[in-house]
Write a structure and sequence with these properties.
The complex is a heterodimer of chains A (331) and B (271).
Chain A: E1 3-14, E2 17-29, E3 34-38, H1 45-53, E4 61-63, E5 66-69, E6 72-73, H2 79-85, E7 90-93, H3 107-114, H4 127-141, H5 147-151, H6 160-171, E8 178-182, H7 190-207, E9 210-215, E10 227-232, E11 235-241, H8 242-247, H9 252-260, E12 311-313, E13 316-318
Parallel strand pairs in A: 3-9, 3-10, 7-8, 8-9
Antiparallel strand pairs in A: 1-2, 1-4, 1-5, 5-6, 10-11, 11-13, 12-13
Chain B: E1 3-16, E2 24-37, E3 41-45, H1 52-60, E4 67-72, E5 75-76, H2 82-86, E6 89-92, H3 106-117, H4 122-135, H5 152-164, E7 170-174, H6 182-199, E8 202-206, H7 210-216, E9 219-224, E10 227-233, H8 234-239, H9 244-254, H10 266-270
Parallel strand pairs in B: 3-8, 3-9, 6-7, 7-8
Antiparallel strand pairs in B: 1-2, 1-4, 4-5, 9-10
Helix pairs in contact in B: 4-5, 5-6
Classes of the chains: A alpha/beta (331), B alpha/beta (271).
Chain lengths: 331, 271
């Protein structure tokens, strides 16, 4: 197992006291797997990514039974140890790629920074040309053919898709074992999104790189996704094989998200009212006790005020007292 | 069915003067005409830079056409006369988070269009605001709320309330659903459909998503590099797209299947 998170809880102080923004989240990523984490905005999915990378500011308190990458405990690392892992074995790409690029220096200069000395073999005097060749090959790897022109351009000259390719290029400079992609395509137009997905799928197939993909829409997840986790308001609702989950969701939240996705309703007559989850996602100040989906869930019953734990049911793990479409314990 | 809105030979040209004697001319919208009937929905599709947002700005009055005219129920809409236009055509924007004024309560923001464009007194304005808030699924109490106290879905409802408070006949929605979470998007789609049935508003939907267009629109116009390349009813265009551009637009988005892309794999193999 590449990444093993058990009962990750992240809390912060608000005006109404201490709040567990993430509530005992468990997530596993195996070697060579594409795992997609789906949740709506504010559900804490980016917090998980940031906790793994160690980006969180001290006002977020991170606690976990396990937060391991291979056999390293990510929770207790010195800054030096962390540098040896983050950016080398774990890399991350972000949503708004353009704003993560330095506007002042050329793309070539930025990518050179990502190439470490230890990756170069030649003598000191050959390093400059060697580094340039490395950058060119990185650009080729993400499908940019004209590397000269690209290395001399600045971030503002790039399109959204090209900027994201540059981010991917610098992320894969050290052949990371795990790539965390935090909504890399959500601001792109659909054709460019497909391009980026294809590129990631190719890198995955070629290098066996694991990808933890973070997405906010079940309709736009990568086709190659093997495992799917649903997160709602800081609680993992369901985890399992992507095909199985999309075929027959066991958690009311997965079902509701599938229902609201227009992609699922290709055969539906136009102008039909879509089935929706009533209400809105709870704010941090007013988190419900127990299962946080409770107030919006049409199947909710009194026991739902007790937080259900993520339990293995058949081929998946479900955190629900009354899971759907499962033979055992049918409602 | 009578025509409500008619766009006649509208063009929009931007001139960029970055050198002293040379000017680069950019035709954002080339000669474009179409019309919209009462209570119908027209969708404008196209990839980035196809001029669809410029067209929306022209219709809503945010930009002045270089040539051509827009008629509302036979009456010419004069560029710059916002009083005349805002009673008929209103707009909702993509980013619900940014389109409301954070300094004003929702009640004050909804009151502004009424102050400028109607002769209602304070009591009538208040009644109208509460009525409109209820129409979009909010409560009268939301008058007291500042935008940051509301969720994204509620903010988008509030901007819809601001758009319909003057009882317009045409609503221009520029990618109004694109950034919403899917459960919120479904709620807003239902709301827009309900409002259309109840109030008979005509919509102009700018969207890149074929699913949304297919679900909401009656007619569709496909734009490419500033001109309309294909138009027709949604059923016709979606079932039998004539232009290869339209086919590509519909295919690349409707299915998740990989098509011939620009990512070059030859380099991957070589290494």
């Amino acid at each position: 197992m590449l990444l093993d998170i058990r009962n990750l809880t992240i809390s912060t102080n608000t005006a109404n006291g201490r709040v567990n923004v993430l509530d005992r989240v468990s997530l596993q990523v195996d070697e060579g797997e594409i795992h997609t984490l789906v949740g709506e905005s504010g559900s804490g999915k980016s917090l998980i990514a940031r906790a793994i990378m160690g980006f969180l500011s001290p006002r977020w308190e991170v606690q976990a039974d396990r937060l391991w990458f291979q056999d390293t405990d990510l929770l207790n690392l010195t800054a030096k140890q962390r540098r040896e892992i983050i950016g080398v074995d774990i890399a991350m790409i972000f949503q708004d790629a353009k704003s993560y690029l330095d506007p002042n220096i050329t793309i070539g200069a930025q990518l050179s920074e990502a190439v470490l000395n230890q990756d170069l073999s030649g003598s000191f005097f050959k390093r400059k040309s060697e580094r340039k060749a490395k950058v060119a090959s990185l650009l080729h790897r993400v499908g940019i053919k004209d590397h000269e022109a690209m290395m001399n351009s600045y971030a503002h000259q790039l399109s959204e898709g090209a900027a994201q390719k540059i981010m991917i290029a610098s992320a894969i400079a050290h052949r990371p074992l795990l790539l965390i992609a935090d909504e890399p395509t959500s601001t792109m137009e659909p054709a460019t999104r497909q391009q980026i997905y294809r590129l990631l799928a190719q890198l995955h197939a070629r290098y066996g790189m694991s990808i933890l993909m973070i997405s906010q829409d079940l309709g736009a997840i990568m086709q190659q996704t093997q495992r799917l986790s649903m997160i709602y308001s800081g609680q993992i609702m369901e985890t399992g094989g992507a095909d199985a989950l999309l075929e027959s969701p066991s958690h009311p939240y997965t079902e509701a998200l599938l229902n609201t996705s227009l992609y699922r309703h290709a055969k539906m007559p136009p102008r039909t009212r879509l089935p929706t989850l009533a209400g809105a996602e709870p704010t941090l100040q007013h988190l419900p006790i127990g299962c946080r989906l409770g107030p919006r869930c049409q199947y909710a019953r009194p026991p739902c005020v007790k937080t259900p734990s993520l339990e293995k049911r058949q081929d998946r793990q479900v955190a629900c007292h009354y899971p759907l479409h499962l033979d055992e314990g049918k409602k | 069915m009578s025509t409500l809105l008619e766009v006649k030979d509208v063009t929009k040209t931007y001139i960029e003067r970055n050198k002293i004697f040379k000017a680069r001319v950019f035709h954002a919208v080339k000669t474009t005409s179409f019309s919209l009937a009462k209570g119908k929905t027209l969708a404008i599709m196209g990839s980035n830079g196809s001029g669809k947002s410029t067209l929306a700005a022209l219709i809503s009055g945010a930009a002045t056409p270089t040539s051509g005219d827009i008629y509302f129920a036979g009456e010419r809409l004069i560029p710059g006369d916002y009083q005349q236009r805002s009673k008929h055509i209103r707009m909702i924007f993509q980013d619900a988070e940014a389109s409301l004024n954070p300094h004003l309560t929702l009640g004050k923001q909804l009151e502004e269009p009424l102050l400028f464009n109607s002769a209602l007194n304070a009591v009538q304005r208040r009644e109208r605001i509460i009525e409109t808030l209820q129409q979009v699924g909010l409560l009268g109490e939301h008058m007291m709320f500042y935008p940051q106290m509301m969720s994204t879905g509620q903010k988008q409802r509030a901007s819809i309330a601001r758009a319909i408070i003057l009882k317009p006949d045409v609503l221009v929605a520029d990618e109004a659903l694109a950034t919403l979470d899917s459960s919120v998007r479904a709620q807003i789609i239902n709301l827009l459909l309900d409002l259309q049935d109840k109030l008979g508003i005509a919509y102009i939907f700018i969207s890149q998503s074929p699913e949304i267009v297919k679900h909401l629109a009656d007619e569709v116009v496909v734009m490419h590099e500033g001109s309309i390349v294909e138009r027709g009813t949604v059923v016709d265009v979606f079932n039998n797209p004539q232009q290869s551009y339209t086919q590509k637009l519909l295919r690349s988005e409707l299915t998740n299947a990989p098509s011939d892309g620009n990512v070059d794999t030859a380099f991957l193999e070589k290494e």
